[in-house]
Structure formats: C-alpha cells, structure tokens
Amino acid sequence: MPTTNYPAEPYKIKVVEPIAMTTRQEREQYLKDAGYNTFLINSEQCYIDLLTDSGTTAMSDYQWAGMMLGDEAYAGSKNFLHLQQVVREYYGFKHIIPTHQGRGAENLLSRLCIKPGDYVPGNMYFTTTRAHQELNGATFVDIIIDEAHDAQKDHPFKGNVDLNKLQKLIAEVGAERIPYVCVAVTVNLAGGQPVSMENLRAVKQLCEKHGIQVMLDATRCVENAYFIKEREAACADMSIRAILKQMMSYADGCTMSGKKDCLVNIGGFLCMNDDELYQRASELVVLFEGMPSYGGMAGRDMEAMARGIEESVDFHYIEHRVAQCRYLADKLEAAGVPIVRPVGGHAVFLDARAFLDHLPQDEFPAQTLAAHLYLESGVRSMERGIVSAGRNKQTGDHHRPKLELVRLTIPRRVYTYAHLDVVAQSCIDLYQRRGSITGMKMVYEPAFLRFFTARFEPLPVSAKAPSAQPAEELATA
Ligand SMILES: *Cc1c(COP(=O)(O)O)cnc(C)c1O
C-alpha cells in the first residue's frame, strides 16, 4: 500500500449519524441561550463535537454484535467471565471488579487503602481521582517532572514521575503514610503526555524498596503504549499488546475508565493482584456498585468492553488515532496558530493566552475563544484555564493557572480528516482576525466546578486592548 503522511482510517463506515448543519444566525442564538459556555450547548446544535473523548467512541460491528449476546443474569454472567479473561490476558492483573465508570473504581480504591493523614503522590492530578483521595483524608502530592508544567517545553515523556520528588516525599512523611503511588498513563491534564517504560520500572523499583504499592490510572494506557513504541528504542520492535502488558507488570493494580481506551460508551473497572485487597474490594463493591461479577455494568456492556479491549491494541487503530491529533496540530502550526507541544494522544490544545494576547486573563481568553470557535463553525471545544481552575478558598480570588487553553478533544473512530480540516480552518480564520475579538464577563458563577454551568456575556470593548475593534459578533448576538 502507498504510504501517506497520515495513515487513512483503518475502518469503513457501516452506520452513519447525521449531524446538524446550522447557520451563523442560529448559532448566535444558541450561544446566547447557553450563556456563552460550550458545556451548556445542546449536542444537536453542534457540527463537530470536540468537547471530550470520554464515552464518545464509535463502537465496531464486533462490539455491537456482542451487545446482543448480553447475559443479564444477576450473578456469574458469561460476559463477566469473558471480560475477566480478557483483562487477565491483556493487562495481566489477577483480579478485576467492574464499576459503572472510572470514578467508581477510584472510590473503591481510595476507601480501601487511604487512612486520614495519608499522602498520595501522583504525576499531576486528575479531578475525580484527586477528589476521591481527598474525600478519604489524603493529601495529594504532585511528583510529575517540572517540564510537564511548561506548555512550550518539548520532552518525549512529559508525563514521567520525578523520582527525586517521590524519594523526598518518602523521606519526609515515611513510607507507612503513603498507601500507594498513583501513576496516570497518559497524563490527561498535562495534555495527554506519556510515561516511559523506563520510568514505570524505576517507580516500581523505588516503591518496592519501601513497601509501597503502585496503582496506575490506566484510562489512556493504549495511547501511552503507542508513544512508548514510537519513542523508546528498547520497545520499538514490541507489539502494542506486549508493551501494554509490560507497563502493567510494573503496577500492583489499576483503575480504569472504559469510556476512553476500552472503546465503549460507559463502564470501568478496578484491578489488583493482592488477594486480601480483592477480598475487601469485593465486599465494598456490593455497597456502591453491585455484585462483584457486574459492578455497575450490564452484561451487554461488559461484553462490548471485553471486545473493545481486544480491538484497542490493534496497531493500525492506535496509530490512526494519534495521527489524527498530529494532523490537526500540524495544520494549525503551519498557519502560526499557537498550540501546546508536544501533541498528546487524545487532543490538541490551543494556547488561548498567546492566541488572544490582547485579553487580560480576567476576561477569560480561553472561554472567549471556545465561544467564538463555536460561533464560527459549530465546532464545540472546552475551556481549560482560569474558569476551570476556580477560586482560592482562602482569598476568594480566581486561581490564575499558567496554562490558559482550549481543548479540541478527538473522539475515537468518529470523525474523518475532512472534519479536522474544518476545525483547523475555523481556528485559522479566527486567528487571522483575533484583534477584533473582545473578552467576556462572568454573570453567573456556581459554587462548585464552576466551568460546567457558569454563564458569561461579551464585553463591548476589552480593558487591555485600545486597538481592538468594537466587538463584532458576540456583542450583536
Ligand atoms: C475520565 C478519567 C477518569 C474518570 O473516569 P470516568 O469514567 O469519567 O469516571 C479518571 N482518570 C482520567 C485520567 C480520566 O481521563
């Protein structure tokens, strides 16, 4: 077959879902109704929906066929046995407990292992993971390498754990107050950045010396395996499947959100090798999820997940997925649009601070950019900046994160390169007339996780932008 710069889709399309083509006038109204917050826009009002890659996957014909084979028995479903067998084969852990989502597994793990006053080190936090740790009395400690916090810094494994930071924490608080180290592969909040095999091995060795468990957040483990194959010479000739299993061999268990790399729309699981921990987990899961043989899942959903795991390690699937991110990033970069580098495995991040450098952070540049992108072409994205960061509880002032980003998240097997052309062109058009874009003010602010439901209004002119034209579109919307 001829080689192309970006590998073509390794699938053909058997079922289609029509998407809405809206006019600019309609989008102006939808956006106004949604308080200029992309979380409050309805799905049917979006042309290309890049809000998240969570649960937005297209399942294969093999998975859909499996849905018809659901064994919905209350106990001992054959689909559970299949899922258990697949997880043992592909991930290598001894025990698996299905849960309704990844956070169900995080809840169980945190309750089982954490005592008040404990510390849980991790390579940058994830919202639900950290929330469950803190709910159970632990303090989260960030042990990711410094490079991860710099949007422009290139590093092949920007998700790596800084072993010195981990060593220092162990020396300070004592190993007995660290129930486990939580390593995310890849790191979502750092932009989908991977962890190297060498780093995973080193973390395991250090933890073993101190009798500390390693628990992976395996949510995007297949993307991580692909980056290892691409960037780590020692693993270049290994299959994705073999890399995945070796990665997992450096952990004592994992939590998993099936909505990402297991290629399903709902589900998750908790794994562990320790028999006693499994015993306690199978007692606790009954309280929060269901019987240990279904957790929070229907039989048919467990079947789809088992089949999704088998498909997820296919080299052509994961190569294409990562290439789609790179394709979009390359187009944007060629036109000078500022993005975060290196590009991760699930999304491209626009650097809104550089994109709208005439807006002060208090006028919500990333939120403003996400609103304008929707207005421009019906492309839905997500703010990851000052709105998502919330307020400092002590001072009441905004947290002001260094990174002010708009996330363009690519669902698995859903969109084509042609869709990504539309996304790129909309961003480029906006960038070329960025000077005319004015900021926004927040007119409704909820007390918790404000980014989900906050409402905004466009400002007529920007405080810091004497040269800016009067707001052309948002103000008239
Ligand atoms: C999505 C996600 C979770 C939580 O999983 P849910 O299935 O949404 O509950 C945990 N960790 C990471 C890195 C995630 O991206």
What does this structure look like?
The protein has 477 residues and is α/β, with parallel strands linked by helices. Mean pLDDT is 94; it is low at 465-477. Helix 12 (315-334) packs parallel to helix 16. It is globular, with a radius of gyration of 22 Å. The longest helix has 20 residues, at 315-334. Helix content is 38%, strand content 12%. It has a five-stranded mixed β-sheet with strand order 2-8-7-6-5, sandwiched between helices. Strands 9-12-11 form a three-stranded antiparallel β-sheet. It has a two-stranded parallel sheet with strand order 1-10. It has 16 helices and 14 strands. The relative contact order is 0.16. Bound molecules: pyridoxal-5'-phosphate.
Short description:
With about 475 residues, the chain is an alpha/beta fold. It is built from 16 helices and 14 strands. Pyridoxal-5'-phosphate binds near residues 101, 102, 126, 188 and 268.
Could you give the topology of this structure?
Layout: H1 24-33, E1 48-49, H2 61-67, H3 78-90, E2 95-99, H4 102-113, E3 119-122, H5 127-135, E4 139-142, H6 163-173, E5 180-184, H7 197-209, E6 213-217, H8 221-231, H9 240-249, E7 253-257, E8 268-272, H10 275-288, H11 299-312, H12 315-334, E9 347-351, H13 352-355, H14 365-377, E10 379-380, E11 382-384, H15 386-389, E12 405-409, H16 417-432, E13 440-444, E14 455-458
Parallel strand pairs: 1-10, 3-4, 5-6, 6-7
Antiparallel strand pairs: 2-8, 7-8, 9-12, 11-12, 13-14
Helix pairs in contact: 1-14, 2-11, 3-11, 4-5, 4-10, 8-9, 12-16, 14-16
The structure holds pyridoxal-5'-phosphate.
